[in-house]
Design goal:
Blueprint: H1 2-10, H2 13-29, H3 35-42, H4 51-75, H5 87-96, H6 100-134, H7 138-149, H8 151-154, H9 160-174, E1 177-178, E2 185-186, H10 200-217, H11 238-260, H12 266-280, H13 292-316, H14 322-333, H15 342-345, H16 347-380, H17 384-403, H18 406-424, H19 430-452, H20 458-462, H21 464-498
Antiparallel strand pairs: 1-2
Helix pairs in contact: 1-16, 2-3, 2-4, 2-16, 3-4, 3-14, 4-5, 4-6, 4-13, 4-14, 4-16, 5-6, 5-13, 6-11, 6-13, 6-16, 7-19, 7-21, 9-19, 10-17, 10-18, 11-12, 11-13, 12-13, 17-18
């Protein structure tokens, strides 16, 4: 392991990795592009490289792509990648308050810590955690998703009923398109574009990037999105780091666990970690108004999914998300197909994967603190009449490049209009996005589970992991109401004492 790390640092692989991280940061910082697209585009260029240099380049792009999304999320309220949606909640308010430097610094440090924490777990527990993940059947996935749905309550804002309406709208959108098991068409109304359903990546770009573009066009007379300010106080203070330790640990563990579960990934992790940070905070009302702990949670969680998603890929040959699926393609080009025997047959390449995550996190940290934190905010601080059309074009291009589909571009535009309408009527968009991401996965797993159990829900209440998630779900739903009742009683008692 140490010999491999030394070889990585002293060979040409490190130069290719730096290039991969840099490209990933650019793709992450531009709204509409993504880490997946960066990795896919780089695969042909790694064909003539050695296996070590090729995988180092791709993992560098992976780390850079996930980390780069925080820049536009903070500076222009448009997440560069879906994994940084929750970063906008507190990052953009901080930028509007003249604290863009602090917000960027918090995001960069949190991204670094999340990646390093996931690397530690990847190195120490990859085989063991993969075995645990293999025990997750359909009912365990249903339990995990039910727990994820509890984030809707916390992230609904001041109006719970509006949040529930938004969540139900997201679930209803999941019913559009081909039935995942029978292939029957549902709720397409004869519209060809809807036959494939509502893909969540174009929907996310539409809801949080295109909708924000429409919002910003309303104030086109204002030259810039955020006030002019110097990027200062980038580094977190010792006090801020100390206060963030519980958040770092909690968000890392949640992100790693979500990364291990196939098909969910960083897009969902940043919502869950943000939700849990808000629940654990002594001042939850400050979230959404510029609390840096919201950035800590989101960026630590989404980067922690990197190591988590690599665990099932390396140990079992199961991709944890879209990016690791692309990485598997890059490995197969080198004649090294991931699977249960991968770590035994290709020990050197396995060590390269592990060490690349660690080294790429340091490369990302250095590039962002020395270059990115100065360059990206300057580029993004173009006049609105220049920036907004450019971002719209890039967002639509990013949607098209996912599956080279004009239909998905139309879906993105329609979801952008829907997001704009929700903003105007002050309905939260996050509950809709959470249910849209998880709705189809939950339906598919529930139906598979019922088929295996011959229509019985008993396994959901008898299998250990599913019971654990049901208990977590019950606690997550009841504790906030108990806390509110206690606060109401305290307020009533203090008012009585004053009288």
């Amino acid at each position: 392991m140490i010999d491999n790390l030394f070889q990585l640092l002293t060979s040409s692989s490190i130069l290719w990795m730096v290039a991969g991280v840099a490209l990933g940061l650019v793709f992450g910082a531009v709204p509409g592009l993504s880490a997946t697209l960066a990795v896919v585009l780089l695969i042909p260029f790694t064909y003539n490289l050695s296996a070590d240099a090729g995988i180092a380049t791709l993992i560098g792009a992976y780390v850079g792509g996930i980390s780069g999304g925080l820049v536009s999320a903070i500076m222009i309220n448009m997440p560069g990648t879906p994994s940084s949606v929750a970063t906008t909640f507190d990052g953009f308010p901080m930028a509007q308050q003249g604290k863009a430097g602090k917000a960027l610094g918090v995001g960069i440090i949190s991204s670094f810590i999340g990646t390093v924490m996931s690397w530690i777990v990847l190195v120490l527990f990859a085989p063991a955690l993969s075995k645990v993940a293999l025990q997750f059947g359909p009912f365990e996935m249903v339990g995990a998703i039910l727990f994820g749905f509890t984030a809707v309550v916390t992230l609904s804002g001041s109006s719970l009923h509006k949040g529930l309406v938004s969540a139900l709208l997201g679930l209803s959108l999941c019913l559009i398109g081909n039935d995942s098991l029978s292939g029957a068409l549902r709720s397409t109304f004869g519209v060809t574009i809807l036959m494939g359903g509502i893909p969540y990546l174009p929907a996310l770009i539409g809801m949080f990037v295109i909708a924000e573009i429409f919002n910003q066009f309303e104030t086109i007379h204002e030259k810039y999105i955020v006030p002019k300010q110097k990027i200062t106080e980038v580094y977190m203070t010792r006090k801020e780091l100390k206060e963030s330790v519980p958040n770092f640990l909690r968000s890392s563990l949640i992100g790693i666990f979500i990364g291990i579960l196939p098909g969910i990934g960083g897009t969902f992790a940043n919502f869950v970690t943000y939700d849990q940070a808000k629940r654990a905070s002594k001042n939850p009302e400050s979230f959404g108004k510029g609390n840096y702990q919201g950035i800590v949670a989101s960026e630590t969680g989404n980067n922690a999914t990197i190591g988590g998603a690599l665990i099932p890929m390396v140990a079992m040959g199961i991709p944890g998300d879209m990016v690791t699926a692309a990485l598997m393609g890059g490995l197969m080009l080198k004649g090294a197909a991931p699977g249960p025997l991968f770590m035994r047959e290709f020990p050197a390449l396995s060590n390269t994967i592990f060490n690349s995550v660690l080294v790429a996190s340091f490369v990302m940290l250095i590039l962002m603190l020395l270059v990115g934190v100065r360059v990206f905010p300057t580029v993004l601080r173009l006049p609105k009449h220049v920036l907004l059309p450019a971002v719209l074009v890039m967002a639509l291009a990013g949607i098209y490049n996912i599956n080279y589909s004009i239909s998905e571009m139309i879906v993105g535009l329609v979801m952008g209009l829907l997001g704009y309408a929700l903003d105007k009527f002050k309905y939260p968009k996050t509950p809709l996005v959470i249910t849209l991401i998880l709705g189809r996965t939950m339906e598919l797993n529930l139906r598979r589970g019922l088929m295996l159990s011959q229509g019985s829900l008993a396994p959901l209440f008898t299998r250990p992991f599913s019971i654990m998630f049901l208990v977590f779900t019950a606690l997550a739903l009841t504790i906030p109401f108990i806390q509110k009742k206690r606060q109401a009683k305290k307020a009533q008692l203090s008012q009585t004492n004053k009288q």
